Amino acid sequence: MSLAKLAEEFADAIAGAASLDELATVLAAIALELGFRYFALTHHLDIPRAPVPAVRIHNYPDAWAEYFDAQRLGPSDPVHRASHMTGIGFAWSRLPGLIQLTARDRDVLDKARRNGLGDGFTVPAHIPGESAGSCSFATSAGYEVRQDRLYAAQLAGGLAFEAARRMVASRKPLTGRPQLTDRQRECVYWAARGKTDGEIAVILGISQETVTLHLKQARARYGVFKRTQLAVHALFDGTLSFVDLLGR
Q: Left if phi > 0, otherwise alpha if psi is -120 to 50, otherwise beta: which for 209?
């Protein structure tokens, strides 16, 4: 079967899943078709204690899942942290090139191998206003990733995560989000870059009083009182990006 046809079948199967249980069954079959043994689709949170709706479905070995939760690895797992550094799927063998592995990271990866996990491939999921997540596929210990199937794994992982988050309705409706005017957003952008009201006024060619008013109205729309809080809220609903804040 051609890679394009395989990807099309995966997309149809994921679209046809009506529940997380059905999606888990589909992902288990997809993992095997791609040459993997396991899958894990999850938000990068301490899931058992997460205060917000979060997704996690997997078929990892029970011993590894129990250890993962006992150690609260959701936010700190090296694979999860590495996924924050890229927008496309990556093999776990690339971890040292994405993050600096600590002694604890190496212990975690060694523990995973001793519990039956081999190499893997992770597809990151970055949605503004939500916790980061990913969809991973893993081989059994001693088996290598099939390089010829990674394009299909990238597609399946992205589609599966989107399907899962829709099922749990984890994203707030767009209609319920604060809406800034273009000028308010410009003022928030420069404020987040550390500019004063006077400096923003010069940059935008408007009065300082107008800048102050725009920022006051923007804070009111988000229900916050400080510039730092305003920047954080604008960042997490997609009004600003990390690139905006870093000035690159």
A: alpha
**Same domain, residue pair 42 and 124:** yes
Q: Are residues 120 and 199 in the same domain?
A: no
Domain containing residue 193: CATH number: 1.10.10.10
Spatial contact of 240 and 228, defined as CB atoms under 8 Å apart: no
Q: Which residues are CB-neighbours of 55 under 8 A, at least 6 positions away?
A: 20, 41, 42, 43, 133, 161, 164, 165, 167, 168, 170
Which of 82, 75, 118 minimizes the C-alpha distance to 99?
82
Long-range contacts of 208-212 (CB under 8 A, 24+ apart): 211/187
For 238: left if phi > 0, alpha if psi spans -120 to 50, otherwise beta; the answer is left
Total domains in the fold of the chain? 2
Report the distance separating Cα 66 and Cα 81, nearest Å: 20
Instruction: Provide the 10 A C-beta neighbour count for residue 3.
Output: 13
Mean pLDDT by 10 residues, the chain (248 residues): 81 93 96 95 87 85 95 93 93 94 95 95 85 93 87 94 82 60 90 92 95 94 88 76 61
Q: What pLDDT score does 245 carry?
A: 66
- pLDDT for residue 229: 85
The pairing of beta strand 133-140 with beta strand 38-43: antiparallel
Where residue 97 sits, what CATH number does that domain have? 3.30.450.80
SS3 90: strand
Residue 45 DSSP label: S
Indicate the residue among 138, 167, 196 that finishes a domain.
167
